[in-house]
Structures are given as structure tokens and as C-alpha cells.
Target: Tetratricopeptide repeat protein 23-like
Amino acid sequence: MDIMDTNGEDQEMWAQLMAPPAAQLIEAQRRAERFAEEKQVHKSCKELMQCTVLTRIIYGNQHWRLAEALANLAHSYLTLQSLPCQAMHHANSAKYILFSLRGDTPPASSEEKGTIWSTLVTIYYTLGMANLMQKDAKECYFNLQKAKKCLEELQGLAWKGAGKPKVCTKDIIVALGRASLQKNELDLASKYFEKAVDDLVSAEGDAAPELIPLYQEIAKIKRMKKMYEKSISYALQAHSVSLALYQKSSTEVGSTALFLGKAYAATGEENHTEAAERYFTESLAAYNEALGMDHPQTIRALEVFSKWLGLAGKRKQAYELLKGSFKTQQNPCNDFNKQAVERLYLMGCICLAEEKIGEAYQLLSKCVQIQTAIYGSHHKKTKKIQELVDMMNRLPTEQKSTKCLKQDKKATLIFSIPDL
Model:
């Protein structure tokens, strides 16, 4: 039975190898799409490379079909692997082919013309997003505007053929918003994001998951402009969509609750303190139930909440929250890693603010020990905490050994909880 199965597999493999290049190309394209849907990134990119090779064999080096294959490969490097340099290389190769087409390789039909316009949309969008990742807002804006114009040309053809563009108008508008944000053009960025929201609501309704990051982008802009009430309003909308789509004990709800807590905290107003604490608590509970206390996302929510509590004058509550996170963790080794350092550092800072010098010294010394093991003694993170420990070392022995620095003595350390 095993021998028969092996023979069957061998025959299938030989059939694939002996198939003509055109048939192999179709199969490679199907596999690439399937692997992309299954989030098998490397397998998808490997198949797209195979598509490029087979397209070159079938059509030659100067055919628009090769440009299409290279554009698809470039887009996959960008979206699946976040590799802007590789994406730009293949996108530029595709663009070069399209702009140097010979007379013997023009598109023969309106469908093929549509595919070329579609390929140009993919090329310019890929270049624009690669520019954005490389912090080149000017080039990003230029390429995204080109992508928008090409998409308008394609839509003007009323074309419904194969090889549709990898992006839609909304994707380009959102990308233009992020490019504007990178250029610090806040009003323009907000305008693009609001346009994307309107388009998305019209197309998919007011509970589309893609609305969440858009509402949060607008909320960030309003916060940067110190328009705190509007920032809270958009953050609330993002959280409402999240609650409508996901379970309360999910990472998605945890993320939007954390964002909303930050929006309330950013105002610095006393009347928003209760709301900020409520949403920080909701976020931490959602992450803890979905991922467990040891997960980096849960720890990050805990750190943000604890910092805010410290800044709000609730230092004892912040300290107990941080201390409790070490008691509930499942793996005892988790108090000697990167996740532990920030919590120990915050606890040390709280003790300093409370003038509990001995306890602060122990906590920050442990921080230095972990940082040295992870980064080495010369790393800036290690040096930062080491300087604080050295400063405490210069205190008189009686001050250092006491549990709490007495109020009638002149405080030699002036310290506060780190900002959010």
C-alpha cells in the first residue's frame, strides 16, 4: 500500500514537472493565492517567484505579463513580509518594463489594457507604501497620487476583467492620510481618514472592522491638536465597533479599551479620571482572560495602566498592581526577562517617589542585573538604571539602610513616575 502511495506521489510530481510552462504558471498562481489566504507567507512568496520565472520563460523579458508578475511579487514582499527594499526593487523593474514596451508586445485587447492599468496601480501603491515605511513622505505622496490616478483610469474603462488591482480607492486614501500625517499635515491627514470612513460606511455599514483603526487615527490627530473631547469621541466609536464585533474578553476589545483609556488620560482633567481607570481596567481584564498574565500584550497594558495610576497620584494602587503581576505569572522564570524590567523599574520609581530608598535600591539593582544579562553593561538601557543605582549608592549609609527616608531630613533624590 505504501509503495503504491509512493508511486502515486511520484507520478503526480513527474506530471507537474513535465507539464508545459503555461499550465505550471496557472498552478503556481493558484498555490500563491491559497498560501496567502492561509497566512503561509514564505510559501506564497516562493510561488510568486516561480510565477515570475515561468512568465519570463513564456513571454520573454520585455512583456507586460512579466511586469504584472513582478508587481505581484513586489506587493507580496511589502504586505506579507514588510520588506520595503525588495518591494521597491521588483516594483521598479515592473515599471521599467511597462514604460519600455516594444511594438511587438502591446496589449491586444481592452481586457489586457485593463490588466496593465491594474498593474500600474499595484506598482505605484507598492512604491508609495515602501516609501512610507522608509519615512520618505514626499516620494510616498507622489507615488500614491499616481496610484490614485491610475485607478481612476481603470475605473473609467468600466473594466471587470481578471487580474484586478491589489488595492482599492479606500486603501490609497488611507495611505495618503498616513503620508500626510508623516509630513505633519494634520488637517489633511484627518480629511483623508474621514473620507475613508465615509466610503467604508457607505460600502459595508457602520460596523466594519476596518473602521476601528481609522477612528483611532482620527482620534490621535485630534489629541495632537489638543481637541480632547473629539479625540475621546472617535476613540469611543472605535471601541463601540470592537464591542459589536468581538467578545468582551478578546484582544481586539482589550486594544480599543486601552486606546480609549489613553484618550481620557491625555486630557489630564480630574473629571475624566474615573473613565480612564474604568477603560484601563477593562483592557487589562480582556487581555488577561484572552492571553494570560504572562503575555507581552497583557504586560504592556499593565504597564500603561500602572504609569497612569502613578501620575494620577495612586502610587500604592500602581505598586500593588505591578507586584501582583509577578505573583500570578505561571512561569517563575518570567521575572528575569525584558518584560520584568519595565515593571521592576516602575516599582522602583514608585518607591523613590514615596522615599522608600531601601526598597527602591533593591528593585533597581535587580533591574540592572537583568539588563546587563540581556543587553550588556554598556547598553544605554543598562546605563540609565545604573546611573540611578549609583546615585543611591552615594547616599549616606543610614539613609540607604532605612526603609523610608524620613520627612525631616533633606531629600537628596527628586524623582517622579515616568510619563506615559
Remarks:
- Residues 403-415 have pLDDT under 50 and may be disordered.
- Residues 396 and 412 are 10 Å apart (CA to CA).
- Residues 185-312 form a domain with the Serine Threonine Protein Phosphatase 5, Tetratricopeptide repeat fold (CATH 1.25.40.10).
